[in-house]
Amino acid sequence: MPKTCGRASVWVLFVLVMGLGRAALASTLTVFWDPSPDLEVTGYVVSYGTQAGVHPIERDVGTSTSLAVSGLTDGVTYYFVVQAYDAQGHVSVPSEEASGVAGALSGRPLIITCPAPSVTSYDGGSLAMVFSPVVSGGTPPVTTVCLPPSGTVFPVGTTTILCTATDVLGTTASCSATATVVANKQRKSGS
Fold first, then answer.
1. What is the domain partition of the chain in residue ranges?
2. Taking the model in full, what pTM does it have?
């Protein structure tokens, strides 16, 4: 080919959908990729198959940067590549191959547990507290945000902490706890 389009990078996100049929589940793998920086790119082709390096099934997705491939067999590994093309029909070299196992979602719900930090202020003043919620399950990557954030200076008394975890599918889980700063104006022993 005299011209090649910009190389697309590809990654696979695993999504399990409702089963079709009584005995076996049919799954969906959704492939997402970064758009090509080449301004002449007018679309993408996703190719896939069940053998590494062999991609007999092709789907032209136009300008979309994702494709949900449904009706896949649970437990089977599928291999994907993406190619960009331009208006003249020039096609880029394939992206690096990405693979995913149909039906391989963790199956575990997203769970977050908030800490209940407590410190003693020996001078009756506010203190900074560092804490970290525990997150499990969900579909990585999972981001966590706490309000107020870890490292905040808390006044004497109790303050509610609210933490929310969000996975790549947009699933969220939240928790709350109480951060406590106890005023104890007695000197620390040994001070």
1. 10-101, 111-183
2. 0.48
CATH of 10-101 given 3.30.70.100, 2.60.200.40, 3.40.50.2300, 2.60.40.10: 2.60.40.10
Q: Indicate the residue type of 37.
A: P
Say if CB 98 and CB 80 are below 8 A apart.
Answer: yes
pLDDT 10s digit of each residue in the chain, 191 long?
Answer: 334 454 444 433 333 332 223 234 467 888 888 888 889 999 999 999 999 999 999 999 999 999 988 888 877 889 999 999 999 999 999 998 888 877 655 457 888 999 899 999 999 899 999 999 999 887 778 899 999 999 999 999 999 999 999 987 788 999 999 999 999 876 555 54
For domain 111-183, the CATH architecture is Sandwich (2.60)
